[in-house]
Every structure is written in C-alpha cells, then in structure tokens.
Design goal:
four-stranded mixed sheet, three-stranded antiparallel sheet, 1 helix, 7 strands, alpha+beta
Length: about 140
C-alpha cells in the first residue's frame, strides 16, 4: 500500500469515527436535573420498584420533558435517587411549575427499612428550592 493511499484510508477512518461520535445516545447531565416524589401509598420494605412523579428542577416553560434515567445509590440507611430528564435546547424559559411525568423507578433491590432521598436536593444549585424541603427526604420508614 502506498503512503498517499494509507494516509487517505486513515483519514477516512478518522472522519467516520468523528461522524459516528454524534450518533451515540445523548449523555445524561452530570448532576440530577429533576425532582421526584412518590405517587400513591408509602412503599413497603419488599418494594423493588416505585411509582414516582418527576418534575424538571429548572425553568422550562412548564414542560418537564422525557425522563432519561435515574441514578440509584443504595446505602445502609438511605437510598438516594437522582433523576434525569432530557436536556433543554438553549434559550430563555418562563418559570411556571413544570408538569409532572409519571415514571417507574427501579431500585435494583428491595427498599428494606431505608429512607428515600431525592438526589437533586443534595446538589448546591437545588438544595434551597421549595422542592427540596427537609433535605429532599421523600420517605422515612416508620419507627418500630
């Protein structure tokens, strides 16, 4: 293979790699960008999935958008859940309350006797928001 031909081939592979980089699924934000609350009755210790209502934490003209995932941190005393919604396009948005989007939250194991905490409320930019009262505590098991 000649040098110009191998250089052209390498350039083609590089160009294809750059173009495909944009094909991947969008990355989630680095910190949770939505708050959540339990829908329905309090969970039981056996629950491995919860029905929650998700609301975008930032101004978005009243729209929460699609839930893209959750980060579940299982601790001995708490389960901290950060929820992510799709990124907003650049621009200015009004600040009415955003709509609530139902979402099934998979814990990965039984809740047990642990607290549930909204992970967005542990972030400096959201911790003082009205949705983060009581430190983002969403559920506390009854004391026996």
């Amino acid at each position: 293979m000649s040098a110009p031909r191998s250089a052209a081939g390498a350039a083609g592979i590089f160009l294809a790699a750059l173009l495909c980089a944009g094909c991947a699924a969008p990355q989630q934000p680095r910190i949770p960008n939505a708050n959540w609350s339990l829908l329905g009755a309090d969970p039981s210790p056996q629950d491995t999935a919860l029905q929650v209502g998700v609301v975008r934490a930032d101004c978005a003209g009243g729209k929460t958008g699609q839930v893209t995932g959750a980060d579940v941190q299982l601790g001995a005393q708490q389960v901290v859940v950060g929820v992510f919604v799709e990124e907003l396009a650049e621009g200015a948005y009004s600040c009415p309350s955003n709509d609530t989007v139902p979402y099934t939250l998979e814990l990965g194991e039984a809740l047990g006797e642990r607290e549930l905490v909204d992970g967005a409320c542990l972030e400096a930019q959201y911790e003082s928001s009205p949705a983060c009262g009581n430190g983002g505590l969403r559920y506390q098991p009854p004391v026996n």
